[in-house]
Specification:
By secondary structure, the protein is mainly α. It has 2 helices and no strands.
Amino acid sequence: MAEIAKNQLKSDSVMKTGKFPYTYRTIWFLVLLGINFVVAAFYFHIIE
């Protein structure tokens, strides 16, 4: 029961603010993904 209330609280906060709550994690995900693609490009000799 507490888990349902917790999930409802999260969805309400997103609806009230209209912002995505995980901006910090999303930025780090995109940075690390970009680095991963650069390393892969070096590995497959796309860039040298």
